[in-house]
Amino acid sequence: MPVGKFLSEELTRLEQCDVKFADGMIRYSDLKAHLRQLLENHTNDVIERSETYCEAECPVCLDVLGKSTSVTMTSCGHSYHTICLISSLGDGLCTSCPLCRTSLSKLVPTGFDGVCFKLICKIRINVDTAQACHRSVLEDIKRRKRECEKDAEKLWSFQIGRKKGILKTMSSLLRCIEALERFSKATATGICKISSKIAKTLDPELGARLKEEYVTRMLYYQDCAEDGNKTTANLKAEIIEYMENFSAGRHIRSNSSSSTGFRCLIPQIDDMQYVAETEVN
Asked: Which of 38, 132, 101, 116 is nearest to 70 (CA)?
């Protein structure tokens, strides 16, 4: 598939992402506008390696910018070895130009290698945002589970007949877990597809040096996804077991040291707590 068509299709698809998860991502509209300009001028937009490159040094590795080396000039006017620029900014440790500190959102390298670099950085931001969201949801699930269990104990202590409300709450928790599982699966699948396509578009000179880095990074992402799937699976099993025991009249007291939990999305549980406190008084 032509590079231009591939990039255009990817940009169109990425713009359809849920805006709730786009706050930490590079703005797709700005990226799309710049990529269009790059693709239109790509044929004539070739970096001229003048004699000054033979004397100038790369600010990252401090080696000479020779004619035989792939060189990239950023929009802020600084030149680097392309591999040095991608390695420096693509790993997430640096988010601006090493010389003038121009922010990543404004740092647009010229040439085809610059396009690849921009997409690589965007993928990393997408992954980090998805993982942060996943962790946040799980923490909220654990907190609300503890609240639900405390209320359930009060219901049993004062024999409040609100079984239907609790079972309805538990059912909503299952739907929340299933939605989180679908989100994690879709995120992992999309990241793998985009990373695979970008790896194929890299210049052979860069591909050889970046291959090992890509493999290591993707294995890390896969491990994170597997850990998340295990956690959600445990949460789901715990909720189902809790519902079965609750329906059968077997009350299981909460384990305060438990590392798993589930989220309460329906406010009925707050009403239950109010009723229990009223009974105590």
From this structure: 116
pTM for the complete prediction?
Answer: 0.34
Rounded-to-integer distance, Cα 186 and Cα 209, Å: 29
Q: Domain span at residue 100? A: 3-114
Given a contact cutoff of 8 angstroms between Cβ atoms, the answer to whether 34 and 167 are in contact is: no
pLDDT tens-digit map of 66-98: 655 677 777 677 887 777 776 776 555 666 777
| Other CB atoms within 10 A of residue 249 CB | 8
**How many Å apart are CA 261 and CA 138, to the nearest integer?**
8
Q: What is the mean pLDDT of the chain?
A: 62
Verify that 105 and 175 share a domain, yes or no: no
Residue 191, token pair as written in the block: 């990241």
Cβ partners under 8 Å of residue 238, min gap 6: 260, 262
Name the domain count of the chain: 2
Q: Which residues pair with 71 in a beta bridge?
A: 81
CA distance 81 to 15: 31
CA atoms within 13 A on the CB side of 181: 14
Q: Which two three-digit tokens encode residue 124?
A: 């990393």
